[in-house]
Amino acid sequence: MTSARLTLRLAPGRGWNWAALSGAIALAVIAVALLPAPPLLSTLLRWLPHLAQGFAMNVLISVLAVGLGTLGGIVLGGLELSPFAAIRRPTHWFVQTFRNAPLLVMVYFSSYIFPFEISIQHHYVAFPDWLKATLGLALPASAYVAEIVRGAVRSISTAQWQSAKALGFRRIQTLRWVILPQCVKRALPPWMNLYATITMGTTLASLVGVADLLNAANNASAAVHSTNFTIVVYLSILVWFFLYCYAISAVTKALERKYAFH
Amino acid sequence: MPDAILSQLIGAAKQAGFNYAFINDGYESGIWAEGLLTTLEIAGLTIPISLLVGVLLSAAITSRRNWLALPARSFIELTRNTPTLIQLYCAFLVLNMLISNALQGAEHNPLTPFAWVVGVLALHIGAFHAEAFRAGIEAVPGVTTEAALSLGFSQRAIFWRITLPLAFRFSLPSLVNNLVNLLKLTTLGSAIAVGEVTYASIMIWTQHDNVLELMILLLLFFSALAYGLARAGHWLENRLRIPGYDVG
């Protein structure tokens, strides 16, 4: 018994899953306990499609923002590793500034600075709010990715470059077959952490009127206008995000253990 | 004299196409200065509270008592894996409403939006601190605590006087990182009408349409604060360094 407890404490990987599961169950119990009457549950089920639509928006924004951020961040990370100070320095300042920028400020910024429609040769194309929020999140995401890329490349020892050269690899071959495969392994866990962070940041878009999950919950709460339903709907979206982000973080931890180097 | 220089700077900015005229407007510059102060107040209050929360939570999760460790661990996982804005809404819209109802009317509720922001951010960042402390606690060599035990220290004394001071040193870089995140999260106050610097900026740019100008000020402000925190962290790290106990 004692030794079993000891393992639970000393092996964080297994202990964490266990504890988080118990947390999720506890939350589910709270949610059910807060459902004093069946009508509340059916009301929640009636709002479920609206909420699911909102969550789809969160997923869309997060995937696009991290995708764009990754492309931009790889370029920025490469520039940060440039041997020329004239390129390295400004990139470094750019990355530091946007790493320190609050996500909410970036979301507000992009939602106010971009026009609501763009004219392309007398054709007006709408510039929807969700796309503005995506761009607002993609900019800091690119700064985070730049740091991840830089860290990953830096973490590969110069001996690897030298041995590859000694084996007759050209520089581009070394990069392709020796350095980058190792970088991907090292950058993957922090990159997934970033994805989870940006996903949680997508709820900020609700503050500039994007129809996301939090916005849907606000709508539902206002329309139903009952204390019990308000409690249930906000706790539900909390659990909703928890399940999504916890799954990502569990995979990240598994990858970290798999790719750990000793 | 400083006023004249400021006016000249504002004039020069106007030449360059930047509208910083609000700085000369006593009312609007007052709103913005108050916003800056409110942000600093939120951060100043939340930093010590979050550290205290972090210490208590880390003590709980490293405890041998499961009834203490499991709820603390669940709380940390829940906090780390849910959006801070939803946490704030759950606290401000749900808990606050329940408290108001229990006290028969919002006018009897002593908790302001400001208090909720401080509370939620302290608990949120406290959970991240706890993880940093836990890693630090695990880095403390077992022989050190065993030596303390053999010298007759109680478990509590070992935690507060041996483990924690060493763990604090090991976890300092992560703590500073968390505090920078805390600074950035103070902007969430604007979501529940706390007049911090983002909220004040929105009030000004909706009047003058000078979003870019205020955004530059905001980015400079947050960069300066983050830089200051990082420098303070480095200074503390050097000051507290114990020879032979460097990590990394």
From TrEMBL, chain A:
Q: Which CDD domains does the entry link to?
A: TM_PBP2 (cd06261)
Q: What is its main location?
A: membrane
Compartment list: Cell inner membrane; Cell membrane
Q: Where is the ABC transmembrane type-1 domain?
A: 55-244
Q: For this UniProt entry, which segments traverse the membrane?
A: 15-35, 55-79, 194-211, 231-252
Q: Which Pfam families match?
A: BPD_transp_1 (PF00528)
Its cellular-component GO annotations read:
ATP-binding cassette (ABC) transporter complex
> Which keywords, in A-to-Z order, does the entry hold?
Amino-acid transport, Cell membrane, Membrane, Transmembrane, Transmembrane helix, Transport
Q: Name one GO molecular function term.
A: transmembrane transporter activity
**Bilayer topology annotation:** Multi-pass membrane protein
Tell me a GO biological process for this protein: amino acid transport
Similarity section: Belongs to the binding-protein-dependent transport system permease family. HisMQ subfamily.
The name this protein carries in UniProt is Amino acid ABC transporter
TrEMBL record, chain B:
Its record classes its membrane topology as:
Multi-pass membrane protein
Spell out the Gene3D superfamilies in the cross-references: MetI-like (1.10.3720.10)
Which CDD domains does the entry link to? Answer: TM_PBP2 (cd06261)
ABC transmembrane type-1 domain location is: 36-230
What are this entry's molecular-function GO terms?
A: transmembrane transporter activity
User: Origin, by domain of life?
Assistant: Bacteria
Q: Which UniProt keywords apply?
A: Amino-acid transport, Cell membrane, Membrane, Transmembrane, Transmembrane helix, Transport
Pfam families according to UniProt: BPD_transp_1
Which InterPro entries does this UniProt record tie to the protein?
AA_ABC_transptr_permease_3TM (IPR010065), ArtM/GltK/GlnP/TcyL/YhdX-like (IPR043429), MetI-like (IPR000515), MetI-like_sf (IPR035906)
| Gene Ontology CC terms, in alphabetical order | ATP-binding cassette (ABC) transporter complex
Cell compartments where the protein resides: Cell inner membrane; Cell membrane
Q: Which residues cross the membrane?
A: 42-63, 211-230
Could you give a single Gene Ontology term from the biological process aspect?
Answer: amino acid transport
Identify its protein family: Belongs to the binding-protein-dependent transport system permease family. HisMQ subfamily.
NCBIfam families associated with the record: HEQRo_perm_3TM (TIGR01726)
What is the protein name stated in its UniProt record? Amino acid ABC transporter
